[in-house]
Structures are given as structure tokens and as C-alpha cells.
Amino acid sequence: MDEFNCQEGFSPQDRKKFRTTQNWMMGWLLSFAVGLVVLSRFLQLNPVLKWTLALGPNLLGFITLRSYVQFIRQADELVRKVQLEALALGFGVGIIFLLGYGLLEKIGMPELGTSDPVAIFVLTWGAAGWWGMRRYR
Q1: How far apart are the C-alpha atoms of 85 and 75, rounded to whole Å?
Q2: Cα–Cα distance for residue pair 23/103, rounded to 1 Å
Q3: Measured CA distances, 50 to 33, 60, 100, 109 (Å)
Q4: How far apart are CA 44 and CA 97, in angstroms?
Q5: How far apart are CA 24 and CA 20, in angstroms?
Q6: What are the distances in angstroms from CA 70 to CA 33, 48, 113, 130, 137?
Q7: Sequence-separated (6 or more) residues with CB below 8 Å from residue 39
Q8: pTM of the complete model beyond 0.85
Q9: What is the pLDDT of residues 59-82, one digit of tens each?
Q10: How confident is the model at residue 113 (pLDDT cuts 50, 70, 90)?
């Protein structure tokens, strides 16, 4: 299973910082999923609870972003290079997908939700990060 280890080549400090970022990402994802399910199924909620469920994931998202930026700033040069390239590829593929699929919707493809394309960004970033670290081992 080592061939699927995205942290291969990380120093112990980089591994610890990245694990922290991953934990924040999982919390963010979980809070988003809970908010999405609860807000779409239970329409008669207390307004304060609705706002909390809608905005809570954003707070965790900003904490995740802060954790990732700290990881990048403190990572060694190779990890920083690989992560930057992975982010660039994830962003580029995501933008191409968003714009391209927008045109496909005009000719009959089903509409995507606003959060659906995020999977393209994240999967491309993850795959590019894994591939980049593999390339340098």
C-alpha cells in the first residue's frame, strides 16, 4: 500500500503538519455533509440553527485553509514545489471543467450543483500531489 502513500518523502515535521491539515479537511467535509443533509431534509428548523449549519462549514474551511498555508510555508522545498504544482494543476483542470461543462449544460447535459465541481479540483490536486511525490522518490 506504500505506492498510494501521498506523504512519502515528507519529513516528520511535514507529515505532522499535513496530518493536521487533513484532519481539518475531514472536519470541514463532515460539517458540510451534515449541513447539506439537515438543511435539505428538515426545512422547519430554528433560524439560528439554520444559520449555524449554513455558515459553520465556512468557518472550518477557513481554518483548514490557514492550516494548509502554514503547512506550505513550513514545508521543505521539494514538498512545497510538489504542492504548488499540484494546486496549479487542480485549479487549471477545475476551471477548464467548470467552463467546459457550463457549455455542455447548454446542449442538454444535466445541471451540476454548485459544490459538485469541487470534486474535480480536489481529486486532481490529490492525484497530482501523489504523482509528484512519486516522481521524486
Answers
A1: 14
A2: 36
A3: 14, 16, 34, 32
A4: 36
A5: 6
A6: 26, 32, 31, 20, 24
A7: 45, 50, 53, 54
A8: no
A9: 999 999 999 999 999 999 999 999
A10: confident
Nearest partner of 2 among 134, 135, 136, judged by Cα: 134
Cell numbers for 7, please give them: 506523504
User: Which grid cell sits at 41?
Assistant: 431534509
Q: Are 56 and 31 in contact (CB under 8 A)?
A: yes
In the block, cell 457550463 appears at 102
Q: What is the chain's length? A: 137
Cβ atoms of 61 and 28 within 8 Å: the answer is yes
Q: Residue 60 and residue 50: Cα distance in Å, rounded?
A: 16
- The distance from CA 100 to its chain's CA centroid, rounded to whole angstroms, is 21
Residue with cell 445541471: 111
